[in-house]
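Quarterly update from the structural biology core.
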Amino acid sequence: INLKNHSDNKQINYDFARKCSNQIAHRGPDQTNEYISENGSFFSHHRLSIIDPSNRSSQPYLSKNKQNIICFNGEIYNYKKLTKDLFIRKISGDTELISEVFSSKSNPIDLLENFDGMFAFCSYDLLNKNYYLVRDSVGIKLLYYRFFEDQLIASSEAFPISM
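Predicted structure, tokenized:
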């Protein structure tokens, strides 16, 4: 779940944001976390651990350089190959790979065509204040969004954003 306030004068209702997020808690029984950015954007994630069950890949995931926050649903099948091609250091999972791509590459969108998998994610560049809502080209992993009272709400299920 991501709520972005489009009006600087309007405060995000975090109780409402948590209520929306809790509607999909069943999707990720392993861990639930939230993150509120400096501009007040709210990110929440319910995690089902598959590739990297350690806390290193907990979400919302903050990049190593603290420039990018991501909520990711899915799997990048070729993340190990992409890691070797794009980075010198070891990356622990596909969530970290996406976050590092979006925080360290000048045009991360160009690299999306190299992602082989089923995925949907919301990425926020904390430095440049850019939001990205991305899903795989086939649409295997769903991504719903809507504007509600000057706020963008995005989710991997329709129900939380229809409240």
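The CA atoms of residues 6 and 150 lie 5 Å apart.
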